[in-house]
Specification:
The protein is an alpha+beta fold. The protein has 11 helices and 24 strands.
Length: about 500
């Protein structure tokens, strides 16, 4: 191919004084190439003469990182739990331009269960944060950040088009929606009415709409005479004859209820807090939304059966005091967890779950304990509870409860479980029924302890009962009727009571 310099000399010799010069900056190597052409040349000939130079120049321009940008690596919203459909960005732990090593914590993500730290799987530089702190409702697979390889200019990263993400603190709209088109109320019917006591009594008795009354009292007060006037007009109106109507029909007034008090205010709209007929929208967190879905699913699809038993925890209270003297701190709930785990080991037919294929027997005994948090009810799991001692159960339950309140539970610490326990005894609740946590088969609701005088045998050989004080506790079992029938549930509660009332069977580590 002829060098550029020789072609330039021929062009100057052929064209003489009727030439012009055009400059093209060649980006990439920083070289400057001058191209001359005759202004009288045809467009096709000009393109032919400049083909080599323009091709190389365009190739260098579009291969330059400063023009095209750096191809990034997308960091997407991951699925951090089996039931997770979207997540919230709580806080970014890295800033744009920070170097990232595989395993570094990038940000905190609120899932439907807890707040989980997202770790990087690659080395590089965090180039761009696409979803800011506090963003809510980020769907799975949505890009939340961009990374580039080490050594690349992170400021030249290519930013893809983004879908809108719901902000963290989006205030509820304060715009009052337009009234329905089909509404037949006169204008100004939604204003605040002032009724005298006598007028309100007559309206309630006859089921009249207060908006149909014409107020004649001071400052728009509806008086007794105004209501009686409307009542007399209503009684004097004859029934309309059944004749064909030729004119256009006029809109009829709204139907007046025959009994009961009319609805007031007529509608509820968002507006000024505290004003009559307004409300305040409370955004639901992911945890609250998932809890609502699972509770609705449980009550709609699981046939709940309930059975209760009263347990004497006097021996448990006595053993707790003895252990406290040796600086061993365990709670009544720890004894309950251990008793349930031992009972499940003795009755494996209760340690089952329900799946799409039917019942599934479980090999391990994992006890889920209900913990109340600000975000909702969480159920961390004490794994292999039947093989743990009281001290280990107490330490594990305390640590998991604190992590649940802090929102730092790991997915493996709340996923799974074969049996749930919900204890409201410390809140003074004597007894209640709990909702089954699917796909589990049972949940045990535990109430508070109370002292009662009862006639009990003095010993096993004596047939004469004596009056003594017992520390009683009510435990209610909610069971899935498809897996645990009433007979099986009764036998489970009987064995559970025997294990709890004889704490000497619970071994210490």
């Amino acid at each position: 191919m002829t060098p550029v310099k020789n072609r330039r000399e021929r062009t100057l010799a052929d064209c003489g004084k009727d030439t012009e010069m055009a400059a093209c900056m060649r980006i990439g190597r920083g070289a400057l190439t001058l191209i001359t052409y005759n202004k009288f040349l045809s467009q096709s000939k000009l393109v032919t003469q400049s083909k080599y130079v323009w091709t190389s120049s365009f190739r260098c321009v579009f291969q330059s990182p400063s023009v095209c940008g750096v191809t990034p690596l997308n960091v997407q919203m991951p699925a951090l739990s089996p039931t997770m459909e979207e997540g919230n960005i709580v806080k970014w732990l890295k800033k744009e331009g920070d170097e990232v090593v595989a395993g570094d914590a990038l940000c905190e993500i609120e899932t439907d269960k807890a707040v989980v730290v997202l770790e990087s799987s690659d080395d590089g530089v965090l180039a761009k944060i696409l979803v800011q702190d506090g963003s809510q409702g980020v769907r799975l697979g949505t890009p939340i950040a961009l990374m580039v390889a080490e050594g690349e200019d992170w400021k030249q990263v290519e930013i893809p088009p983004l879908d809108p993400v719901r902000p963290a603190s989006a205030p509820p709209t304060a715009e009052v929606p337009a009234p329905p088109v089909a509404s037949t109320r006169p204008p100004g019917a939604l204003k605040l009415l002032r009724l005298s006591p006598a007028a309100r009594h007559i309206l309630d008795t006859h089921g009249l709409d207060p908006h149909l009354v014409k107020a004649t009292g001071p400052r728009g007060l509806i008086t007794k005479e105004d209501v009686l006037k409307l009542l007399n007009q209503r009684e004097k109106v004859p029934s309309a004859p059944s004749v064909p109507v030729t004119a256009a029909p006029t809109p009829s007034p709204p139907a007046v209820p025959t009994t009961g008090r009319p609805s007031y205010p007529p509608i509820t709209v968002p507006g000024k807090p505290g004003a009559p007929g307004t409300f305040t929208e409370i955004p639901a967190s992911n945890v609250r939304r998932v809890i609502a879905q699972r509770l609705t699913l449980s009550k709609n699809t699981i046939p709940h059966s309930y059975a209760s038993v009263e347990c004497d925890v006097g021996a448990v209270m006595k053993l707790r005091k003895e252990l406290a003297k040796e600086n061993i701190k365990v709670s009544v709930n720890d004894f309950i967890i251990k008793a349930v785990a031992v009972t499940l080991r003795e009755m494996p037919e209760v340690n089952v779950t329900w799946s799409a294929e039917g019942p599934q027997a479980l090999d391990s005994i994992h006890i889920s304990i209900a913990v109340a948090t600000q975000r909702g009810l969480m159920t961390p799991i004490i794994k292999d509870a039947a093989n743990k001692g009281l001290q280990e159960i107490a330490a594990t339950a305390k640590a998991l409860a604190q992590k649940a309140r802090d929102g730092k539970l790991l997915p493996e610490e709340y996923q799974g479980g074969s049996f749930s326990i919900s204890n409201l005894g410390m809140l003074g609740i004597s007894g209640f029924s709990a909702v089954i946590n699917p796909p589990q088969a049972c949940i045990l609701a535990v109430g508070s302890t109370r002292a009662e005088l009862r006639l009990t045998p003095q010993n096993q050989d004596s047939s004469t009962p004596v009056l003594c004080t017992q520390q009683l506790m009510t435990a209610t079992l909610s069971s899935d009727g498809r897996l645990v029938d009433d007979d099986l549930a009764s036998r489970f509660l009987e064995k559970f009571r025997a294990n709890l009332e004889r704490p000497q069977r619970v071994n210490l580590p």
